[in-house]
Design brief:
single chain, about 120 residues, mainly beta, seven-stranded mixed sheet, four-stranded antiparallel sheet, about 0% helix, about 50% strand, globular
């Protein structure tokens, strides 16, 4: 049984940085691609970043390119999202997701496992 758990959310000022962590429980972490999504009030869940099974290939949503960095540590079953130069519009609940596949997906239905989410609020 795979379970995901996010941590690291909180309040940050615009221009600041925050690092989210996601713990993957299970023995098959290396067989899963991972992704970060976010959902702001009244909006659909949006793809933020994704990484393949070993973290060599990474993908980003247009709104975070050049500011956010996804990484993973397969030895520790961890996924990270480093968020820099944060903007007010980055305010959302951030979700970690995983799918047992070689390819990174950018749409929510393709992910099998989801965390409970962590709130990130950017203030002016």
């Amino acid at each position: 049984q795979v379970q995901l758990g996010e941590s690291g959310g909180g309040l940050v000022q615009a221009g600041g940085s925050l690092r989210l962590s996601c713990t993957f429980s299970g023995r098959t972490f290396g067989e899963h691609t991972v992704g970060w999504f976010r959902q702001a009030p009244g909006k659909e869940r949006e793809f933020v970043a994704g990484a393949d099974r070993i973290g060599d290939n990474k993908y980003y949503g247009d709104s975070v390119k050049g500011r956010f960095i996804i990484s993973r540590d397969n030895a520790e079953n961890m996924v990270y999202l480093q968020m820099n130069s944060m903007k007010l519009e980055d305010t959302a609940v951030y979700y970690c997701a995983a799918r047992r596949s070689r390819s990174v997906a950018m749409t929510t239905p393709l992910y099998e496992y989801w965390g409970q989410g962590t709130q990130v609020t950017v203030s002016s």
